[in-house]
Design goal:
heterodimer, A: about 80 residues, mainly alpha, Non-ribosomal Peptide Synthetase Peptidyl Carrier Protein, Chain A, globular, B: 3 domains, about 0% strand
């Protein structure tokens, strides 16, 4: 299950946000603090998580202190499912 | 803040850190912070206003807690010590009017005692009413945000500030011709307002943790971050507040480092740069483009060292009390684009605006039945968010233009990035380094040019500076 979450997140970020579908994103690669994902795409990512996994990430939680990597985001999703 | 106030704050933080142990920790921090609300407030020309504004701060904090408190935290038994400390401090400070020497914890001699007692009773009634209203309807939370924003407008719109001061002069039977928009300097209100709105909005969304009055008030008026931030989040602050604390050698070393760095940045670098930094007077005196650029560079670095110096001092003071306050700056002038600049400049302010304005508005615009084109959503949200950040500094045309300058810059960078990021990502590392260095240089100059609006008093002087910078004047 966790692999499925990670794969879906990695594919979404690579294809829809970074526009590089073949790019591999490391589980612990910083996404927000590195500037890879900007504030606008962060909202999109939050909406994707809500649609795909049925997990709500509050607007106030969309920041690097809540999650900065795919593995942290996947852990957050698992914790709320 | 003066060096004396900072040194006194350091001594107070050491004392409070030593006293604030165990269950009394929130109460001790509340007492020191409540005293600081009065001690930091500068003297004002309207009689007794420098006493009443801090008093209103404490009343607002108590009423806001009453509106947002979880039912299990509202008991009189759990909260009477905090209420007694708040009321006792106001009363004791009021009684210092009878001391034979000048006031030392208030900016001027406090008003008459019966007025202070009346104010305490009014604040208690307001808090009681807020407690009662909060059980009736959640609409009062929205009304509280409206009230805070209205106070904000009174302080930030020069015309409203002037007429309010005029009214207070008349009320006090002072010469109203001396009223000025600069009379209403309510120290720390901007940051207090952000914290209050954060707690009220989180209460509306059901995310606010259950807190006592002492914990809530200690968070909102925490004295290390009272005047210049950072804007902490209450759930993070509570983690530190509820943790057992005893000052360790590591805390002391870390705090000492941050305090020394902060004092050096503020009182050596920033104050030295202030001698040549761009201002309304020297902007008209310099004749060449070269000198105008030197003034602008000096201003860009002065504002950074001044503000980040204050943040270092706040973080150092917080560490003496066992708090790891959030960072506000992370080498912003070295970032390769404007988006990353804003992720690393006044970070807690931008995070606040993202959480309570940008993210909900973007989500709303992206979720409509007929979604707007993405570039339109980005343009609207970036422009309005940055205009609001500009307005937070003051409701003047220059601050709005400064915000629009950055909003437009963020939009252009976003569109450019969308078109080029896939192509740039496959460039060799050496080219990436060159691009990043070029981007940092360009971003710094874009930000520096934006500071013209920030530093100048009006549009015509700003335009004059732009003409000079590019050799047209």
């Amino acid at each position: 299950m966790s692999d499925e979450i990670m794969t879906a997140l990695a594919q979404y970020v690579a294809a829809e946000i970074l526009r590089q579908p073949s790019r591999l994103i490391g589980a612990d690669e910083p996404l927000l603090t590195s500037g890879l994902i900007d504030s606008f795409h962060l909202v999109d990512l939050g909406m994707f998580v809500e649609d795909k996994f049925g997990v709500r990430i509050d607007d106030a939680e969309l920041n690097a202190s809540t999650f900065d990597t795919l593995s942290q985001l996947a852990a957050l999703i698992r914790a709320r499912q | 803040m003066t060096l004396t106030i900072i040194l006194v704050s350091m001594a107070a933080a050491l004392l409070a850190g030593w006293l604030a142990r165990g269950r009394s920790r929130p109460l001790v921090l509340l007492a020191f912070s409540a005293l600081a609300v009065y001690a930091f407030q500068p003297a004002l020309p309207v009689r007794h206003l420098d006493f009443w504004l801090p008093t209103v701060t404490l009343a607002l904090v108590a009423a806001s807690w009453a509106l947002t408190a979880a039912p299990e935290q509202r008991s009189w038994r759990a909260n009477w010590p905090a209420a007694a400390i708040l009321a006792g401090i106001v009363l004791l400070l009021g009684l210092t009017r009878f001391l034979p020497f000048d006031a030392f914890l208030t900016a001027s001699r406090p008003p008459q005692t019966f007025q202070i007692v009346l104010a305490i009773l009014l604040a208690a009634a307001l808090t009681g009413a807020a407690l009662w209203l909060s059980r009736r309807s959640a609409k009062w939370l929205a009304a509280a945000i409206g009230l805070i924003l209205a106070l904000f407008l009174v302080l930030k719109v020069p015309e409203l500030s002037y007429w309010t001061s005029f009214f207070f002069h008349k009320l006090n039977q002072q010469y109203s011709g001396a009223a000025s928009a600069a009379d209403l300097r309510w120290l720390g209100f901007s940051y207090i307002a952000f914290r209050l709105i954060h707690t009220i909005r989180d209460r509306q969304s059901g995310r606010l943790p259950a807190v006592t009055l002492a914990e809530y008030a200690a968070y909102v008026i925490f004295f290390p971050s009272l005047t210049a931030g950072p804007i902490d989040r209450i759930e993070r602050f509570l983690g530190d507040l509820r943790r057992p604390f005893a000052l360790s050698a590591e805390d002391l070393t870390e705090a000492g480092k941050r305090l020394l760095v902060g004092l050096f940045k503020k009182f050596v670098i920033a104050d030295a740069l202030a001698l040549v930094a761009l201002n309304g007077t020297n902007a008209l005196q310099v004749r060449t483009a070269g000198w105008t650029w030197i003034l602008l560079y000096a201003y860009a670095f002065q504002i950074f060292f001044d503000f980040s110096g204050y943040t270092d001092i706040a973080i150092g003071l917080g560490r003496l009390l066992g708090f790891k306050l959030p960072e506000n700056f992370n080498a912003p002038y070295r970032k390769p684009n404007l988006t990353q600049f804003w992720n690393n400049w006044h970070m807690t302010l931008t995070q606040w605006f993202r959480a309570y304005f940008f993210n909900p508005v973007t989500r709303l615009l992206r979720s409509t039945k007929k979604p707007l084109p993405i570039p339109v959503v980005i343009f609207v949200t970036q422009i309005i968010t940055m205009a609001l950040i500009g307005l937070w500094h003051g409701v003047t045309a220059n601050f709005v233009l400064w915000g629009l300058w950055h909003g437009l810059g963020l939009f252009v960078h976003n569109r450019w990035s969308e078109r080029t990021k896939a192509r740039f990502a496959v460039l060799p590392p050496r080219w990436q380094t060159v691009l990043n260095a070029g981007g940092a240089l360009l971003t710094f100059h874009f930000v520096a040019l934006g500071w013209v609006f920030f530093a100048m008093p009006d549009l015509s002087t700003s335009w004059h500076v732009f003409l000079k910078l590019f050799g047209f004047a």
